[in-house]
Structures are given as C-alpha cells and as structure tokens.
Write a structure and sequence with these properties.
The complex is a heterodimer. By secondary structure, chain A is mostly helical. Chain A is built from 9 helices and no strands. The longest helix of chain A is centred in the middle third of the chain and has 30 residues, at 90-119. Chain B contains 6 helices and no strands. The mean pLDDT of chain B is 84. Classes of the chains: A mainly alpha, B mainly alpha.
C-alpha cells in the first residue's frame, strides 16, 4: 500500500511540477469536441444524444493519449528499471499507474463536460451531477484497460499505434453502457433508471482492474 | 506420426466437406420463408462456432503459456488466433451475403453482427501486435495477456450489445425456446456441416501449428549454433 502511495505521489508531483499530461488530455478533448461541433453542426442538432456521444469520443481519444504517456515517461532514461529494481510489487505499480491515469482523465473529463455544455448549448444544472458517476466509472475502466495494454504495446515497432487498435474494441461494452447512461443522465433521468448500464460499467471496471492486477507483471517484467 | 494424423485428418475433412456440400445443395429442403438464400446458414453457423472455439483456445493457450512458459503454448495460441480470424472473417462475409436479400442491407447494427465484428477487431489487433514485433518470449507474453483479456471481455460485449439492439434470427435456440429448424433433414445437414467445418479448422490449425513448431526448433538450433561458433572462436 505504501509502495502504491509512493509511486502515485511521484506521478502526481511530476504532473504538478510542469508535467503536461493533463494539459495534453484537455487539449485533445477540446479538439475532438470542436471537430464534432463543426462536423455535426451542433447548433442545429443540439440533442442529448450527440452531446453524450461527443463527450465519450473525446474521452476515448484523450484517454489513449494519456495511456501512451503513462509508461513512456518511465521508459525514458530507463527509469522503469529503477522502479522494477526497487522492492515494489508489479501489482502495486499497476494500481498506482492506473490511479494516476484515472486522476488525469477525471480532470480532463471535468473540462470536457464544461466545453460540452457550452458547445452543445446545454444547461448547467443537476443533470451534470448525475453524469459524474457515469463518467468516473468510464474513466476508471479505460485507465485500467489502457494501462495494462500500454505496457504490452510500448515496445513493439508499431508502438503507440497499437494501443487504440487493441483498447477501443475491448472498451466497447463500457462505451455502449456509458453513452446510453450519459444520454439518460443529460435528459434528466434518475440514476436508478440506468441500473442496467451502470451494472455493465461496474462489471467492466472490476474485470479489468482484476485482470490488470494479476497480469501486469507479465507485461512489465523486463523493459 | 503427427504428419500421418494430419494427413488422415485432411482426408476426413475432404470427405466431410463433399458430403456437407452435397447435403446443402441436393438433400436438404429449401426453407419456406427465405428460399434458397437460407442454405448459406449451413456454412455460416459452423464458421461462427469454429471462430468462437478458436478464440477461446487462444485464451486457454495464453494462460498455459504464462503458467508453464513453454513455447509450445505460444505457438498453439498464435495458430488458433490466425485460424480463428479466417473463420471469423468467413462468418462476417456469409452473414453479409445473407443479410442483403433478407434484411435488405449488407450491414446493420444487429447485436450478433456487432459482437462478431468486435471480436474480429480484437483478434485483428492481437495479430497486428504479433506482426509488429519479433518473436521473442516477451512478445509471446504480451500476446498471451491480450488473448486472455480479450476472452474475458467477450461476455460483457455480448451482454452490452444485446441490450443495445438485436434483429438477428435466433435459430438454434429460439426466443420461444426450442429450435427453428422445421425439417429433421435440416438438423442432420447442419450437424454434418458443423463436423466438416470443425475438421477443416482442426486440419488448418495443425498445419500452422506444425509450421510454427518447426520455426521454433530452427530458431533454437540457430541459437545453439551461434553459441557453438562463439565458443570455438570460429566466425
């Protein structure tokens, strides 16, 4: 647990002292939203469906950017060797990396929600509060999946191109559930009415956190 | 010995495949509602079954590789993923050919179609991962992890996509229970086609597996030779 806290603290401190993962994630989210506003002509479409869809597209693309950066920082100068030589279990390293990716994604999501409300002419009201658990579950699932996969794809010749190719199809269950639940939340439905979708997202998160926890040592072994 | 088994299996595949083709085109009656197009069902369903079985084998081989560390399991996983990909592609193609006259579209957002396509994408990614790196034990471990994670994801994909939407006919187990095959000869034909496709898959898998085993053996020999040369100072 203390190893987990130490690695997480290190990553957050790096980020606060001029690391720019969060900035990159925010910029990516904003770019995706802007492109979609022009592509969909949001002023005419102004629907909860397209707003929720745009939000999740922004989340996936910024999440991919974040996940490719998470371990590449450790690979520079072989810092990962130091981490692996230290008395640190691979599962703790995985948990810390996932937690850091989740925090960066959550910050970027908050910014993306504000931009979505502005670009799609929605209201700042209680429906945004109901969006929080949905987005958090989605960001957690994506961080868990992408952190595991980025450790595997980082060494290959195709490298960072492979991460979205592997991660996005696997993220589909959470994506479908997330978009449906987000649309419902934006339309003002109570959380209880989306139980089915939330259950799928919880199952996805539990599954991939467990899988990552057990399998991470096999992919991060000898960088 | 393996070669003998493989050759016999090839012969069995040939016989079963000819029998299945004969039954599909000459023996089984034409389905009342859909007409002649329905006959593609006897290839479509076996292809889907074989593809799913093959992808399941990728995950099992991946677990065994991570557990035991023997290269033989990685070779098996690689061969399963490749043959599964062939049959998954065939499932999508035959389904699309059927959907055009029956649904009026080549492609729809139907749940089983979407699920199969997502599987196709996931294992396409698996094969890209293997293709984009040299065959080292490290890449074998990555592939094993991806194969396991993909298989874990499949139940969730099925549940979520089904909740999303479906228009696919339920034939083997209908929504009312029971099955949708009216004539007993249809069941016999489907079973023979299943056996034929399974034999074809097993044969292709064995061929590819044997080839990968040979490559592993050659790699080992090359390494040993290099060591031998280095030891004697001979370049």
């Amino acid at each position: 647990m203390s190893a987990f806290a130490a690695v997480l603290r290190k990553d957050l401190r790096l980020e606060l002292r001029g690391g720019n993962s969060t900035i990159a994630l925010l910029a990516m989210s904003m770019l995706v939203l802007v492109v979609l506003v022009f592509a969909l002509d949001a002023a005419r479409l102004r629907s909860f469906d397209s707003a929720a869809g745009a939000l999740w597209i922004a989340m996936i693309f910024s999440g991919v950017v974040g996940a490719t950066r998470a371990l590449s920082a450790e690979r520079e100068n072989g810092a990962i060797h130091g981490l692996l030589l230290s008395p640190l279990e691979a599962p703790s390293l995985y948990a810390a990396k996932t937690a850091a990716a989740f925090i960066f994604m959550a910050v970027a999501e908050a910014g993306a929600v504000v931009m979505m409300v502005l670009f799609f002419n929605l209201e700042f009201d209680a429906s945004l509060v109901r969006l929080i658990p949905v987005l958090m579950l989605g960001a957690l699932g994506f961080s868990a999946l992408a952190t595991l996969l980025s450790a595997a794809t980082g060494h290959t010749r195709a490298g960072d191109m492979l991460l979205p190719i592997l991660a996005v199809p696997m993220f589909v269950p959470a994506l479908i559930a997330g978009v449906k639940a987000s649309t419902a939340a934006l339309a003002g439905a109570p959380l209880a009415s989306m139980g089915e979708w939330l259950r799928i997202m919880v199952a996805f998160d539990v599954l991939f956190i467990t899988a990552g926890y057990l399998l991470f040592e096999h992919v991060v072994g000898d960088d | 010995m393996n070669t003998a088994i493989r050759n016999w299996l090839g012969l069995v595949t040939l016989v079963l495949m000819v029998a299945a083709l004969f039954m599909i085109f000459a023996y089984v009656p034409t389905e009342a509602d859909q007409g002649i197009v329905q006959r593609i069902f006897y290839f479509h369903v076996p292809c889907a079954w074989v593809a799913f079985a093959s992808f399941g084998m990728v995950a099992v081989a991946g677990m065994l590789y991570l557990w035991l560390g023997d290269q033989i399991w990685d070779d098996l996983g690689y061969a399963s993923a490749e043959s599964g990909m062939v049959f998954c592609t065939l499932t999508l193609v035959t389904g699309s050919l059927w959907a055009r006259p029956i649904w009026g579209v080549w492609w729809s957002g139907d749940s089983r179609l979407t699920t199969t396509f997502i599987l196709w994408l996931m294992y396409g990614g698996y094969l890209l991962l293997r293709a984009s790196a040299d065959d080292t034990p490290r890449v074998a471990r990555f592939a094993a992890v991806v194969g396991i994670v993909a298989a874990l994801d499949v139940p969730l994909v099925i549940v979520s996509v089904r909740l999303w939407r479906t228009i696919h006919p339920a034939v083997i187990v209908t929504r009312q229970g029971g099955h949708g095959l009216q004539d007993p000869s249809m069941i016999v034909t489907l079973l023979v086609a299943m056996a034929a496709m399974t034999a074809l898959w097993a044969w292709l898998l064995m061929l590819r597996f044997a080839q990968l085993r040979t490559r592993t053996r050659l790699d080992t020999l090359a390494t040993q030779l290099a060591f031998a040369h280095a030891a004697t100072g001979d370049r």
